[in-house]
Design goal:
single chain; 480 residues; alpha+beta; OB fold (Dihydrolipoamide Acetyltransferase, E2P); Rossmann fold; 3 domains; 18% helix; globular; disordered N terminus; transferase; methyltransferase activity; Class I SAM-dependent RNA methyltransferase
């Protein structure tokens, strides 16, 4: 899947589609086990064993001894939540988000772990997935660290989410889904109920009284309050307020759906990066549909765009493919980096994201926008040039069909997969810059690239989802 809004990292606590709530009468569910906790595993839990059976345990840490309540059973493994800590780890702290504790909402499964230990946890997961799945055990994994986003240490990893999704419970109170369930846990008003939200999101919620109201059960309420170009909260610093409330996808203002012509506006997003060879930083401004995909951490857009530019190197005059390009987060700084003599071909499968990208790249003659499934476009099928000045393809179908100097890709959580990796390799780029939000998918695709003759030459990891198990990585692959 290539559509950007499908990326589940933007919606903590929402259960995967099609998964039914666990039932309490399943044999073994609810049983209390005393467990010695082993190493971390991908997904926010640690591994323990009970009578030879693997048990994945949440809300614990390696080396602890806990009592855990079984939440699901199966033939291959069980799941459990630690409900009593008998021997704590020195890395255990008071939970930063109590509502995400055992039996609570998803999306804050590491809030009981000290921030430095969270980053060591994530580094271990990234390294472990690359060793196990990609069969890579090179020097890049020695001492791998997960880098903090600017300001997170001072803020204890809180107040970073610029977009929050809520849903009304059976009583009409707003909350989030219980982990691996469709049940809704009601939350207190922000920031207490969800301390990962930025002050701007909390102020927006208070201004519209969203937690004081009683909503129709199942109503979805989305709060969007973009940060400024340096990652600072625009509302909290006195900047222009750009927040927007969506109720079941419709703009909401002062207690009712806002039907004014300009109500369904795109929100203003921005970031600042330093281009290769430039002495001063450059600010890029975007307009993004409120319900569209954008990095949720206030500082993530600039942090990741800078990492991509650094990884791509000097691309002046080059042809760059920007795959899964979304609203153009990387497209715009790459266009500036290739300069007038270069070309950036951006490919995105979601029509709404392409509309945003067309607006954001307007007037950039070196940008070509294509809409369609990335695998299909690279294979020469299903390609459609997006409309607008920034989207006219070259004669003969555009550079997407020829050799590329550099390929940048930022796929959804499922990763690029074999066909896309093969199509990238066919274009013989000197360098591939892979932005990944899932270590397992990254490791699988690094293995595919190795089969195609590319090897890992650089790896960075970023903690843009503090208090969750999610981690972002930027990997560079080059011809062996």
């Amino acid at each position: 899947m290539t559509t950007r809004p499908s990326r589940p990292r933007t919606r903590p606590g929402r259960p995967p589609r099609g998964r039914e709530p666990r039932v309490s009468d399943v044999p073994g569910v609810g049983e209390l086990l005393e467990l010695e906790i082993g190493p971390v595993a991908h997904g926010g839990h640690c591994v323990a064993r009970h009578e030879g059976r693997v048990v994945f345990v949440r809300h614990t840490l390696p080396g602890e001894r806990v009592r855990a309540r079984v939440t699901s059973t199966g033939s291959r493994f069980w799941r459990a939540d630690a409900v009593e800590v008998l021997e704590p780890s020195p890395d255990r702290v008071d939970p930063a988000w109590p509502a995400a504790g055992p039996g609570g909402v998803g999306g804050g499964e590491l809030s009981h772990v000290a921030l430095p230990a969270q980053r060591r946890w994530k580094a271990d997961v990234v390294a472990g997935q690359l060793r196990r799945i990609a069969r890579y055990d090179g020097p890049l994994l020695d001492g791998l660290t997960v880098e903090a986003a600017p300001g997170d240490d001072a803020a204890a990893g809180l107040g970073y989410r610029t977009r929050i999704d809520l849903v009304a419970d059976d009583g009409g109170r707003l909350g989030m889904h219980r982990f691996r369930s469709h049940d809704v846990v009601a939350l207190d008003a922000l920031p207490a109920g969800m301390p990962l939200a930025t002050p701007g999101v909390a102020e927006l919620a208070a201004a519209e009284d969203v937690f004081e109201r009683r909503w129709k059960p199942g109503t979805r309420v989305e709060l969007v309050a973009p940060a400024g170009p340096d990652g600072a909260d625009a509302t909290a610093t006195g900047g222009e307020a750009q927040g927007l409330v969506l109720v079941d996808g419709e703009p909401w203002h002062r207690g009712r759906v806002d039907s004014r012509p300009n109500a369904r506006r795109a929100v203003k997003e921005s970031m600042t990066v330093r281009l290769p060879g430039a002495e001063d930083a450059t600010t890029f401004t975007y307009r993004v549909s409120a319900a569209g995909f954008w990095q949720v951490h206030r500082a993530a857009p600039g942090l990741l765009a800078q990492a991509v530019l650094d990884a791509a190197g000097d691309v002046a005059g080059a042809t760059v493919l920007d795959l899964y390009s979304g609203a153009g987060l990387f497209t715009l700084p790459l266009a500036a980096a290739v300069r007038e003599g270069g070309t950036v071909v951006a490919v995105e499968g979601d029509d709404g994201a392409v509309r945003d990208a067309r607006r954001n790249a307007h007037g950039l003659d070196q940008v070509r926008l294509l809409t369609g499934d990335v695998a299909e476009v690279l294979a020469g099928r299903g390609e459609a040039p997006a409309r607008g000045r920034a989207a006219e393809p070259d004669a003969g179908g555009g550079p997407v069909h020829g050799r590329a100097d550099v390929v940048v890709l930022d796929p959804p959580r499922a990763g690029a997969k074999r066909d896309v990796v093969a199509a990238i390799a066919d274009r013989d780029p000197a360098r591939v810059v892979y932005v990944a939000c899932d270590p397992a998918a990254l490791a699988r695709d690094v293995g595919y690239f190795a089969q195609a003759g590319y090897h890992l030459t650089s790896l960075r990891a970023f903690d843009v989802f503090p208090h969750t198990h999610h981690v972002e990585a930027v990997a560079v692959l080059e011809r062996a």
